[in-house]
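Appendix B.2, paired examples.
Example (i):
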Amino acid sequence: MNAALQRLRAEIRFDRAAFEARLSELQAIKLDAATDAAHCAQAAVALHHAYSAIESIMQRTARAIDGDLPSGAEWHQSLLHAMGLDIEGIRPAVLSRESVAALRELLAFRHFFRHAYAVEFDPERLASLRGGLLDAAPRLAHELTALDTFLGEVAAAPIGDRE
């Protein structure tokens, strides 16, 4: 179990680094009413990948700690909701209500992104999404650090104390 938890921590750190790289990319993109299609597309891809990195952390956590992933047509929403729950005896909430709300907007955008083959991106909407994500980023960083701390404590606990 210790090796599995340490691997989980390493995988989450990898996903977190990918998320932080997308944040840096988003900070560097100028978004206003005059932003061209190429820069809008770059921002859209970065927003998509930023959410995907966070969702990967949620999936890994759900599989390893919660025991499985939600299923059904709305599993992405269910997963996000589950990460906001404190599951007594299993794990604390991974995300705050504020983070869940901010990520819910990005999840909706990601769904739009994946199905918007013939749509031009609105630079003002992208700027709003980016702003919401950048505002949420410090809180998300704190919550992901708390998750890593929790996993480290569980991994270090004597085997009889883990259940």
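Example (ii):
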Amino acid sequence: MAMDNKDLKLLSLLQQDGRITNQALAEKVALSPSACLARVKSLQDKGYIEGFRTKVRLEKLGPVLMAFMEVTLGNHHPADFKKFEKYIDQIEEIVESFVVGAHFDYLIQIVVSDMTELRDLSNQLLEADLGVIKLNTLPVIDRNKAFCGYPLKKLSRYHFEESS
């Protein structure tokens, strides 16, 4: 199955609302429910859909401190990167990590309860024999735009039809 406009529309709608019913999804893309379900299953099988997650309003749970941390390693051998990545994979407070092409090596996103937990996590990374030589921590003061999905239409070499 080649990717087409209906598939992109399905992906776009699903990233906006992963709990949309198959019936409602089928109506929005002008497919029968069985054809819609088959397309979604195919998109999952081909790896276009990684999974479905729930957006949690963290502030409802209690105090939350989100921060980004720039991490610089002293050595840049593949084994050093693998060691660091394996280590941070085990830390649930590190919710995302990116290897970047900048004056630092990683940009990691952290969610903790308070500044004490953030300090403890920083110390843990520095003391864990991972080759970390520098950390720069950027606490988030306020989120003015939350992640709501990728711009699939612009990223794809395909385009939605205006009538879709």
